[in-house]
Amino acid sequence: MAHYSFQFQTLAILVLRVGVRQEVVMKDGILLQLNNISVVYSDVIQVLKGVSLSVEEKHIVSLLGSNGAGKTTTLKAISGLLKTENGKVTDGDIVYRKKSIQNSPPETITRQGIIQVLEGRQPFKYLTIEENLRVGTATRWGKPYKKDMELIYDYFPPLKERRKTLAGYCSGGELQMLVMGRALMAHPQLLLLDEPSLGLAPLVVMEIFQIIERINKEQGTTIILVEQNARMALQIADYGYIMENGKIVMEGVSADLKENPDIKEFYLGMGTSGDAKSYRDVKSYKRRKRWL
Ligand SMILES: Nc1ncnc2c1ncn2[C@@H]1O[C@H](COP(=O)(O)OP(=O)(O)OP(=O)(O)O)[C@@H](O)[C@H]1O
Ligand SMILES: [Mg+2]
After folding, report:
1. What is the pTM (predicted TM-score) of this model?
2. What is the mean pLDDT of residues 248-271?
3. pLDDT by residue (tens digit) across 215-227?
4. Ligand 1 contact via 69 beta carbon (within 6 Å)
5. 291, exposed or middle or buried, with CB in 10 Å at 0-12, 13-18, 19+?
6. Which residue puts its alpha carbon closest to atom 29 of ligand 1?
7. Does the residue 163 lie in any domain?
8. Where in the sequence is the domain holding 154, given as residue range(s)?
9. Atom of ligand 1 nearest to the CA of 74
10. Would residue 255 count as lying in a domain?
11. Total count of domains within the chain
12. CA–CA separation, 264 and 23 (whole Å)
């Protein structure tokens, strides 16, 4: 009898301990927090060096930075996709809804409502637009999806017109709509968008950003928006982080970042006098100046 009671007590302590470890104290309203995370690829290539950021529920947070800064790596650390590239979080903590999720399998993370739209917009080329959208329901297979489809067509009317077309024949703008629509079919609570504007014509970029803003407002979806188009990103984001060489080097509410002289010069292509600088000037400035 004493033996069983001892075992029961040990089990109770274990359950309590695990419970205590999983629940992390977070400020109210914070959905996701990265605490000082480091990421290493193939056990030797360190890319993120102590990144910390937090994302408030229902906000759009933009993550800006030049090529190779570590933006995509940050998103993959959150979604668990690092694993597919032999990368891992070696230090720090990623906390989502008060629970640690770092290095969890991507399917577990997806089921908790974190959906990443990868850069480069890869559809299933030999499926139609409508079939591609249905793939987005994979996490809740067998459940009704017709209403979701109507919602997607409401946000992205061109997809409705072309719903029977093979995705391989879509334009860049239509593809961006398709991959975002596919992600919405999974009912995301936290949507990770990686460079949605890349390579698109200015009018299409404007349309895509308006839709991102609508999704955030109407669906209450929290969004992390990785962009090189700082002007557009800061227009719709509540808060922004600037990343350089695997570290966050600046952060602030979008309105402040837009007025920051370094951001103006470095990312918005404006001199301190307000003149637009030529791309060449900005590039050479970029080479000289580091944020660190
Ligand atoms: N699978 C990988 N293995 C090794 N190194 C990688 C891997 N993926 C990315 N890197 C390196 O990590 C660094 C950051 O890459 P990442 O793709 O996160 O940057 P980024 O900010 O998204 O850049 P871009 O704006 O060009 O998309 C780069 O130096 C890149 O070469
Ligand atoms: Mg990237």
Report:
1. 0.86
2. 86
3. 999 999 999 999 9
4. yes
5. middle
6. 68
7. yes
8. 119-187
9. 18
10. no
11. 1
12. 40
